[in-house]
Amino acid sequence: MRKKIIGSSDPILTTNQKVLDQIIPLTEKFGEGRTETVIPFLSVIRRSNPTSFVPGVLTPSFCLIVQGAKKIHLGKEKIQYYAGDFVASLIDMPAQGHVMTASKSKPFISLRIDFTKKEIADVISEAGIHVKPRDNGLNSAAFVGKTDPDILELFVKLLKLLDKPEESLFVSELVKREMIFRLMKGEYGHLFFQPVIFDKKVNGVGKVIEWIKNNYATPFTVEKLAKIHNMSVSGLHQKFKTITTMSPLQYQKQLRLQEARRLILSGSADAASAAFDVGYESPSQFSREYKRLFGQPPMKDIKSLRKSPGLDPSI
Fold it and tell me: Residues in domain HTH araC/xylS-type (predicted)?
C-alpha cells in the first residue's frame, strides 16, 4: 500500500505539483462524475464528495490523480494513490474503488487515457524500444506509480487542445503516442510491456486471459483451459493469479457479472435475459452472485446507479 509523502523536498515532486496546479483550472468546466471529452481517449473525473466502494472494471488505461486520493481493491491487494500518482491496467481487471478525499472547494480530480495493447506495441516497434523484463516478466497487469513532469506536461497539452477543435483530433493522437513512448522509456516500462500479456503467437497465460475475455459466456474447466494452451494446471493458476490477482474461474465470473450489469443498465436486457446472455443457466444463482459482488440484487442495484448522477460503474 502506498503512503503519502508529507513535507518532501524532492525536486521532482515539487515540479510535479507545479504542473498539477496548472492542470486543475483546466478541468473546472467539467461537471460531477466522469465526462467524455471531444478527444475520444480522454475523460475527466471530478467528485465533490468521497464515495463508497463501487465494484467495476479497470479497463486498459492510464489514470492520473490530479487532486485528492483514491483507494482500489484488486483481489486481496489494497492500493491507495494520491495527487501525482497513476493507476494503469493492461487488461480488463475487475476491481473495487472509492474516492477517499474530496470536497466542493477541493474536489477529487483525475484524468484518464484509454489505450490498447496494439498502440503500445506499435510505438515500441516503430521507436525500436527494447524493454528489459524483470521478475521473470511476470507482474500484475494493474499497478500504481508516480508520474514524472514530462508526462504531466503532456496532460496539460491535451487539455489545452480541447479548445482547439480543428487541431484536437490529429494532434491529440501524436501526444498520446509521445506519452506511450515516454512511459515505455521510463521507470515503469517493464510493467507497461509484459511479454506474457502481449505475445499472442505462443501459448501461455496471455492467450488464456484473451480467450476468457472473448468467451466469458462459455463454460470451461481449468484443466481443459490448461491443456488447450499447453500449460500445467498449477502453472496456469500461479501465473494467472499473479497477473490478475484471481483464479481463471473467478475472473470469468466477474467479467460475466460486470457485462450483465452493463446490459441491464443500458436497457438492452432485463435481469433474466442478461443472466442468460452472459452464460448463467440459473436465474437464482445469477441473482445470488450478483448480490454478492455488487451488494444488492440486480434491479435494486441498477436503480441506485440511475439515481446517482455521475456515478460510473467503471473504476
Answer: 206-304
